[in-house]
Write a structure and sequence with these properties.
The protein is α+β, with helices and mostly antiparallel strands. The chain folds into 2 domains: 88 residues; 82 residues, Sandwich (Immunoglobulin-like). The longest helix has 92 residues. It is built from 1 helix and 7 strands. The strands form 2 sheets. Strands 4-3-6-7 form a 4-stranded antiparallel beta sheet.
């Protein structure tokens, strides 16, 4: 009897290739899923970036509108300020005209040391023949203090005004006398 060898079945040789093919397909499927997940994450990140960018654009537009409104308000305020300045200049010119039209206040003011030893005393002399009701304004520019006093000056008489009357004058103080019929007098204490 002759021995005959049967050829090996072909399916036995394909067995390991079949597992390689399945493994490769599984790896390919996992890679496709990973790429899909990565694409989804990129899409989510892209959506977040788009939302942040749109918020930044909206914020920038609001800021630009605010700046435009602020610039317009500034221009309007500057225009109003210029109008007020021109009105003030006009009023000042009218005031100067009225003041220069009034005669000089018939009063002579001098200063002496206080007999009590506290500062200076203003000696105000009425050189007219009538009673004068004047307003005395005293101001200390160093201390930024100021007060007003009403004085009645008898005709051809002098009136002393110092710390006993409500103001202790010192060098550099400003004294002003006002009367409605006369131009104001302004002095600085020597």
């Amino acid at each position: 009897m002759e021995s005959t060898t049967l050829p090996e079945p072909k399916h036995a040789a394909r067995g390991p290739l079949w597992w390689v093919s399945i493994s490769f397909n599984i790896l390919l499927f996992v890679a496709v899923c990973a790429l899909g997940l990565y694409a989804f994450m990129l899409n989510v990140d892209l959506g977040d970036i788009k939302r942040r960018l749109s918020k930044e654009v909206e914020s920038r537009e609001q800021t630009e509108r605010y700046l435009v409104d602020t610039r317009n308000l500034l221009v309007q305020t500057q225009h109003e300020l210029e109008q007020i300045r021109s009105q003030l200049d006009l009023r000042e010119a009218e005031f100067r005209t009225v003041i220069t039209d009034k005669p000089r206040l018939p009063v002579v003011v001098g200063f002496r040391s206080s007999l009590m030893g506290k500062g200076m005393v203003a000696v105000i002399e009425n050189a007219s023949d009538r009673y004068l009701n004047v307003v005395l304004a005293a101001r200390n520019p160093t201390l930024s203090t100021a007060r007003r006093f009403a004085l009645e000056l008898a005709p051809r008489a002098s009136h002393s005004f110092g710390h006993m009357e409500g103001w202790q004058f010192s060098s550099g103080d400003e004294l002003s006398l006002f009367h409605e019929d006369f131009a104001a007098i302004r002095l600085s204490v020597p």
